[in-house]
Design goal:
The chain has 66 residues and is mainly alpha-helical. It contains three helices and no strands. Helix 1 packs parallel to helix 3.
Length: 66
């Protein structure tokens, strides 16, 4: 299950970081010392862990935007 989490996290972060508008905004210098993620649900099984990875990646993507 750990692998499913990592794979889903990586895939979603790659998708988020590939957006041109996002790259322009993130290129400017800023710091984000703490990312506040919304509540995330953990459904059972590998599918649930994959869904969790996507939710965490999206939270990171939102936190990177100025």
């Amino acid at each position: 299950m750990q692998r499913a989490f990592v794979v889903s996290l990586e895939k979603e972060l790659q998708r988020i970081l590939a957006e041109p508008r996002g790259r322009e905004a993130w290129a400017r210098s800023h710091r984000t010392p703490v990312l506040r993620l919304p509540r995330v649900a953990l459904d059972p099984g590998t599918a649930g862990v994959g869904k969790l990875g996507v939710q965490v990646a999206r939270g990171i993507g939102r936190g990177l935007k100025p």
